Amino acid sequence: MSTRITDEQAFRELTDTYRHELHLHCYRILGSLTDAEDAVQETLLAAWRGLDGFEGRSSLRTWLYRIATNRCLNVLRDAGRRRPPGPVPPFTPPEPSRRGEVTWLQPYPDELLERVADSEPGPEARYSTREAVELAFITGLQLLPPRQAAALVLRDVLCFPVGEVASMLGTTETAVKGILQRARASLDKHRDGAGHRPSPQERELTRRFADAFTEGDLDGVLRLLTDDAWLAMPPAPHEYHGPEAIAGFLRVTMAVPVPEGFGMTPTRANNQPAFRCHHGESPAGLMVLTFDGDRIRAITRFLEVQALVSGNEG
């Protein structure tokens, strides 16, 4: 910076330019909207307090990303913040296909994505802007060692030069190249590869799913699924893989009476079709669909969405 900033309001106006993209960056690494907001607040506070030490050898944006990345790595070292308690359902769920590890996962509303000023990937990006926020990608990042996840996001999504990534992580360029090689190989194994791509059938398929689900039409829901579909419900660890397992779970849940009525309001999250669920006027979570062609590959039912209040990001 050519002029030393000594006024807090001037600093806030300058850093507000980067606030939304920093929030998305922290969300990618942490997988939690709540933790991402806390990390951004801590980043901006640390930047203000450390402003005298900023000598301008890197851009303000790079400096802020360095602080944000290290704040995220600190969060990941504190396992207590990443393991929310599982909910207690009003029924006995069938035995799951497996118990998932990423119980802290939260959705990222598309209204927040729209606030990111320039979301187009650079020419060296390995992942498209759309792919780099989809649930499969975010979940895959959570299963990587923290430094691998941070390096991959900084280099392969945001296209920071290897030298800057090394500086942000406090290591060497050679080490970063090794970290990236391992991260890319691991992420390819964790991700399901389906990915959501907009198609003319999306609106119709989404409508048919909502109609069948709200009417308790189990067969109608199952007809829309792929043979390898799965259902997850963060923060509950239960996952059900395959239509038969999903049917067993939905059969139990659909049998639970809801006097107020069950409704689904279309929305979007993580660049994917989604529904805000409600029992009468009471919120009942958020459901995100992952498509594979003209079928549904995954249903992710987020049971707790307190963080999804419009405007929570400032």
TrEMBL record:
Disordered: annotated span: 81-100
Report domain RNA polymerase sigma-70 region positions: 16-82
Q: Which family does it belong to?
A: Belongs to the sigma-70 factor family. ECF subfamily.
**Gene3D superfamilies named among the record's database cross-references:** 1.10.1740.10, 3.10.450.50, Winged helix-like DNA-binding domain superfamily/Winged helix DNA-binding domain
Instruction: Kindly give the PANTHER family that the UniProt entry links to this protein.
Output: ECF RNA POLYMERASE SIGMA FACTOR SIGJ, SIGMA 19 FACTOR
InterPro entries, alphabetized: ECF_Sigma-70_Domain (IPR052704), NTF2-like_dom_sf (IPR032710), RNA_pol_sigma-70_dom (IPR014284), RNA_pol_sigma-G_actinobac (IPR014305), RNA_pol_sigma70_r2 (IPR007627), RNA_pol_sigma70_r4_t2 (IPR013249), RNA_pol_sigma_r2 (IPR013325), RNA_pol_sigma_r3/r4-like (IPR013324)
| Organism of derivation | Amycolatopsis orientalis (Nocardia orientalis)
Q: What interactions and quaternary structure are annotated? A: Interacts transiently with the RNA polymerase catalytic core formed by RpoA, RpoB, RpoC and RpoZ (2 alpha, 1 beta, 1 beta' and 1 omega subunit) to form the RNA polymerase holoenzyme that can initiate transcription.
Domain named RNA polymerase sigma factor 70 region 4 type is located at 139-187
The Gene Ontology terms for molecular function here are: DNA binding; sigma factor activity
Kindly state which keywords UniProt assigns to this record, in alphabetical order.
Answer: Sigma factor, Transcription, Transcription regulation
Q: Name one GO biological process term.
A: DNA-templated transcription initiation
Q: What name does this protein carry?
A: RNA polymerase subunit sigma-70
SnoaL-like domain: which residues?
Answer: 207-255
Cross-referenced Pfam families = Sigma70_r2, Sigma70_r4_2, SnoaL_2
What ranges does the record list as Pro residues composition bias?
Answer: 85-95
Recorded superkingdom = Bacteria
